[in-house]
UniProtKB/TrEMBL annotation, chain B:
Alphabetical list of PANTHER family matching this protein: UBIQUITIN-CONJUGATING ENZYME E2
Catalytic activity entry: S-ubiquitinyl-[E1 ubiquitin-activating enzyme]-L-cysteine + [E2 ubiquitin-conjugating enzyme]-L-cysteine = [E1 ubiquitin-activating enzyme]-L-cysteine + S-ubiquitinyl-[E2 ubiquitin-conjugating enzyme]-L-cysteine
Active site: residue positions: C93 (glycyl thioester intermediate)
InterPro entries with a match to the protein in the record: Ub_conjugating_enzyme, UBC, UBQ-conjugating_AS, UBQ-conjugating_enzyme/RWD
Family to which this protein belongs: Belongs to the ubiquitin-conjugating enzyme family.
Protein name, per record: E2 ubiquitin-conjugating enzyme
Keyword Nucleotide-binding: yes
ATP-binding listed as a keyword: yes
Swiss-Prot/TrEMBL keywords: ATP-binding, Nucleotide-binding, Thioester bond, Transferase, Ubl conjugation pathway
Top-level class of the enzyme under EC nomenclature: transferase
GO cellular component: endoplasmic reticulum
Length: 344, 169
């Protein structure tokens, strides 16, 4: 079953065992999967958006790697790593297969192509030229660069950012649609605000849950935790390059409730002896106890009778066996069991 | 995995197990007790050389919470252990197994606590070095702590006794 879980150890026995480190670096330290919507912390460590948000809301306000203080608002997208993961994971299976096949056959030595100084020079020159053009291109088309809105963190072209801010982050107006409508018809997902348990009323949280189409049952604590997890799941989804549908996120929330929350609630309630007045308890449940005692007596009696019967049969059997064999060990065993039964 | 999609905890533990068996640390063996439930592991730890625990082979269990790796597992020796940092019921008291925030003995700095970047092999290695170097500042077994501080000879004697017991001698 282990072969279908890709992990860095797959590279260990291959010719490219160094790729183990590459593989490891592209994985989140929390879930050990390739980064999904990687976010970089203020201290420079990268985690999946969902993993780090969950950790910072539920466990500790410190970076898991270096223990420096850390807040969700400090997290930023790590776009380069996201692209890197995308390309590496797309090629991973192929590289692994090729490398493992190659391990079976001797690899022909790689011969460096001879390089002439002239060619080298030419290459370098053309390289410089290309860099320059790129630079000017970037300058000209700076309006096409995607920038993050400082208010709602939506990504939009530089040209649209001012209008976006003027409209209070609301681009759904007739004019605002032109930069959106050309490529995608879906509007960009927006992050939602966390609620503060100290300042937010329960009714408000209930309404928010209702607005999102989520369950509003449970105690105050449950409602707050549910909304908190919803915010975590939702905001992590917004960080995703290809966000999943709302119903998918709802499924995730449901799964979280059935595994994590249900398990916490399943812990046995501690019953302290102080809470119980034992005389009252005995009186209240006298009938039940009487019934149980009677049942227990009956079953003991029944077992005894059965065992006695068995013993009698065994004794007879043993008698025959002993007659036939001289080995008297089974006889000793029998007397041991007999002794045990007298006690019970 | 009970028919459903494995949870984050299950998935991560599968990976840890796979990595563990591909590159096992010396003197330690560990794995899920049952391949359908990755939340309970059994492990065997060899007593480190040049310590009273030398030559011993100590069985223990690791119980992982549903929200692993956000919260740490609980480690419990299933044989008799005499050690300042192991409770009499076998539960190991070591900073790497304490989540930041709960500090039963008020002495641990946040940097040596549990964090999701830790893993099973790191826990077991820490436990092994804990066997070699008890920390008498955090007494889980007060008697053993005192004995270790005041009467090393007697301490070694008792430990050797538990080692023989664990080996079934």
């Amino acid at each position: 079953m282990n072969s279908d879980i890709p992990d860095p150890s797959d590279w260990i026995d291959s010719k490219l065992s160094g790729l183990k480190d590459v593989d490891e670096t592209l994985r989140c330290h929390i879930c050990k999967e390739f980064f999904t919507a990687p976010m970089i912390t203020g201290c420079g460590h990268t985690f999946c958006s969902l993993c780090i948000q969950r950790y910072l809301t539920n466990t500790s306000q410190r970076c898991p790697t270096c223990m420096q203080e850390q807040q969700i608002s400090q997290l930023r997208k790590n776009v380069t790593v996201e692209t890197l993961v995308e390309h590496f994971s797309a090629q991973r299976a192929t590289i692994l297969r090729v490398v493992k096949e190659a391990a079976k056959q001797p690899i022909p030595e790689v011969v460096e192509p001879p390089s002439s100084p002239d060619l080298d020079d030419g290459r370098r020159r053309s390289g410089r030229k290309r860099t320059r053009t790129n630079y000017t291109e970037t300058l000209v088309s700076s309006d096409d660069i995607q920038v993050e809105c400082p208010v709602c963190q939506a990504m939009l072209p530089g040209a649209a950012i001012n209008r976006h801010l003027d409209n209070n982050c609301n681009d759904t107006g007739a004019n605002g649609g032109n930069w959106l409508g050309t490529k995608k018809k879906t509007k960009p997902l927006r992050k939602i605000q966390r609620v503060n348990q100290a300042s937010e009323s329960v009714a408000n949280v209930r309404r928010k849950l209702q607005d999102e189409g989520l369950s509003t049952s449970g105690s105050k604590q449950t409602l707050f935790r549910r909304y908190d997890e919803w915010v975590t799941l939702w905001n992590a989804n917004v960080d995703n390059k290809t966000p999943r549908s709302k119903s998918d996120i709802k499924d995730d929330l449901r799964r979280w409730e059935t595994t994590v929350v249900a398990n916490e609630n399943a812990q046995p309630v501690k019953m302290t002896i102080k809470n119980i007045d034992d005389r009252q308890w005995v009186q209240k449940h006298k009938e039940d106890y009487d019934y149980l005692i009677e049942q227990a007596r009956k079953s003991i009696l029944k077992k005894k009778q059965e065992k006695e019967k068995e013993q009698q049969q065994q004794q007879e059997g043993h008698q025959k066996a002993v007659d036939r064999r001289e080995d008297n060990e089974p006889d000793m065993k029998r007397s041991e069991t007999e002794g045990y039964q007298v006690v019970s | 995995m009970s028919g459903k999609r494995p949870s984050v905890a299950q998935k991560r533990l599968m990976k840890e197990y796979k990595q563990f068996i591909s590159d096992p640390p010396q003197g330690i063996s560990a794995g899920p007790a049952d391949e359908d439930n990755f939340l309970l592991w059994e492990c065997l730890i060899q007593g480190p050389d040049d310590t009273p625990y030398e030559g011993g082979l100590f069985p223990a269990t690791l119980k992982f919470p549903q929200d692993y790796p956000l919260s740490p597992p609980v480690m419990k020796f299933t044989c008799e252990m005499y050690h300042p940092n192991i409770y009499k019921d076998g539960t190991v008291c070591i900073s790497i197994l304490h989540a930041p925030g709960d500090d039963p003995n008020m002495y641990e700095s946040a940097s040596e606590r549990w964090s999701p970047i830790q893993s099973v092999d790191k826990i077991l290695l820490s436990v092994m070095s804990m066997l070699a170097e008890p920390n008498d500042e955090s007494g889980a077994n007060i008697d053993a702590s005192k004995m270790w501080r005041d009467d090393q000879e007697q301490f070694v004697k008792i430990v050797r006794g538990t080692v023989r017991k664990a080996l079934g001698l």
